[in-house]
Amino acid sequence: MQYSHGLKIHTFGCNEQKMTEKQLKTRQQAFALSVCTIVFVAVYKFCTWYASSLDNVPSFAFDFERSIPFLPLSIIPYMAGGLFFGLVFFFCKDKYQIKILAWRMLFVIIVAGIFFVTVPLKFSFEKPPVSSTFLGLPFSFLKDFDSPFNQSPSLHITFSFVFWTVFKDVPKWRFFFLIMLIMVGISTLTTFQHHFIDVVTGAILAHLSFILIPYRKNNPEHYRIHIANYYFLACWVLVFFSLLIFKFFGMEGLLILFPAVILLIIGFYHQKIKGTAAIQKLKMVVVRSSR
Most exposed: 29, 119, 193, 214, by fewest CB within 10 Å? Predict the structure, then answer.
């Protein structure tokens, strides 16, 4: 009986410790979310105010974008991006992942803000009226909060890539989050909130944050992902220049898409390399750097 009683006390102590650790983690998640939210709102509002004060804000669109349909229903995944902004912190596994996520979020927000001010752009297509009252409400909200400015890079696109670095580690919901984040990306175009160039620059900014703020790059399992991000970044940069050349000089610019696709394939290959291969590559890098 005494042994059993002691065991109960010990078990209670362990449960109490686990609760304390869980509460600490929740506080860290809430703090990181609060800081990122405050910075995002401050930067976004300031950039909107600045752009709206200018006499002339240009637009940048491709001719093929005229073929992109306006889909009112896509406002649902577009607005879901804001929900994911709040949820992603609470799916982080530990303090380190929370820290990396927060630093990446702050980095992309600030860098995007710099571009919103130094290279201001606005959406140029006229948005068709929405007949549905249910769908009209979120569009009315967008009109008040999400102005036609703050275009490139698209933070919806950038955030989607950043969110995936956390959501991909949630086994039960991985596929759901993948589909939803893809829909968020598509909705930036079909809600007539962004032009195509904003999508590309948003992807560039996201992968730049992955490289400058890596997640456990010295761990063999994550080192291969870190290397893959260099290929992904190079791919998006080539897509960017390909589209610019296409717009100003013609079809020749699309030829650059071929090496971009090759870099994309190489990046996916590095992501899928087995851990043993990643370890060998890491050892080679360490040996070379020590010489």
Answer: 119
Contact 180/74 with Cβ under 8 angstroms? Answer: no
Which residues make Cβ contacts (< 8 Å) with residue 228, sequence separation at least 6? Answer: 267, 268, 269, 270, 271
Q: How far is CA 17 from CA 4, 9, 263, 270, in A?
A: 20, 12, 48, 40
Which is nearest to 154 in space by CA: 88, 31, 60, 241? Answer: 60
Number of neighbouring beta carbons within 10 Å of residue 110: 12
Per DSSP, which regions of 27-143 are E strands?
A: none
| Alpha-carbon separation of residue 226 from 54, 89, 157, 208, 288 (angstroms) | 40, 21, 20, 11, 18
Specify the pTM. Answer: 0.85
Cβ atoms within 10 Å of 222's Cβ, excluding its own: 14
Q: Answer for the pair 62, 195: CB distance below 8 angstroms, yes or no.
A: yes
